[in-house]
Amino acid sequence: MKPIITTKQGAVQGTLSQDGKALIFRGVPYAQPPVGSLRFARPQEHEPWEGPRDCTQFSPRCPQCDLTAMDFYSKEFYDEMVPPEDEDCLYLNVWTPADAQPGSKLPVLFWIHGGAFMHGCGSEKEFDGEGMARKGVILVTVNYRVNVFGFFAHPDLEAETPEHVSGNYGILDQLFALKWVRENIAAFGGDPDKVTIAGQSAGCMSVQTIISSPLTKGMLRGAILQSGGGLYAMKKCPTKEEITQTSQKLMEHLGVSTIEELRAVPAGQLRDAAYAVQGQDLSWRPHVDGWLLPAHADAQAEAGKIHDIAYLIGSTAKDIGDGLLLQEAGARWCENLLKLGRKPGYFYFFTRSLPGDDAGAFHSCELWYEFETMNRCWRPWEDCDWELSQTMSSYWANFVKNGDPNGPGLPEWKAYTGENTQPMVLAEQVGMKA
Fold this sequence. Notes:
Layout: E1 4-6, E2 11-13, E3 15-16, E4 22-29, E5 53-54, H1 72-77, E6 91-97, E7 106-112, H2 130-134, E8 138-142, H3 147-151, H4 155-158, H5 169-184, E9 190-200, H6 202-211, E10 222-226, H7 240-254, H8 259-263, H9 267-278, H10 297-302, E11 310-316, H11 324-339, E12 346-350, H12 367-370, H13 383-402, E13 424-426, E14 431-432
Parallel strand pairs: 2-5, 7-8, 7-9, 9-10, 10-11, 11-12, 12-13
Antiparallel strand pairs: 1-2, 3-4, 4-6, 6-8, 13-14
């Protein structure tokens, strides 16, 4: 019999993993479809439904580019069928231990996918929660609006909100999904007070935005920032004026002059226009709006206006900026935690060169290891890779459980302190950097 769990909006019917150790709920709606008048609007609570809703298949992803035509990354992550595109994309996925019960109060890992804020979804093949479920952790992965659908901003939209702001809808989707988790995860055996958010690349930048926002105070117990966070890590987020200029350019490109006309443009045409006007920059991304994000994330961190929670941060050897940019940004983040008198952070450097080609420890490569999904990849893995996956996934699960990655049978991971400023090296041999 398929498992059924009752959420605030109605019952959802999932499935059992092949090994019988995890319950999986795919394509669970957490907000109303953002279509029609809800295009370029904040997420709204989903209407209730009657009877169990079939949640055994992944949902569509937000309209975006063809992931199977991305050269290196298409072979790595997108060589298999990806979900179809649809503006009706605000869904999440839950993996929970098969023996979890309401009242189990299990810790929760809330995962935000990357993709330059332009593409991606929570059901990519490198993501899976069965490994976390075996370790007693619930995994939630989420879809959110990307590119123009998630980050268009315009003065005419400001009148629709009491704070007179617009844009940042993709981040607001993530916050709304977090709210859904806090309201519903107990039914899946989770503890709403034990939520750790994590993300990689644009997902990491999303995490840093969320922990810099006053809107999420008290909602989180920890955060994991992978390959996109830290102090002075990436180009600063755009101002309201800059994102508005890009949005105006998009309207001119489409030949429309009002929001009503823009909301009537077919999704595919709007998607193509978003790519046409963005140029070489990450034009569609979070901006400082004075409400969700009061100031640039770096300024929020240095002023001590980030949440006082547990942090784990790091990057890979051949990451963005030749590996140095993000490593140095991660070190500065940990230094700043010490200056603020906060709990010391856990700092890592993933240096394993993946077998099969000469790409090395490339941006995103660690995802196979932390989610224990290497069997879905074409690479000729070696014994040390399987061992590293078990070690890394255990570190991540322990951090979600305790705010500390250490645990029995694992090499000691020392926090970043005045006495220890070196990262934990995740490679063929795992250990603190000498």
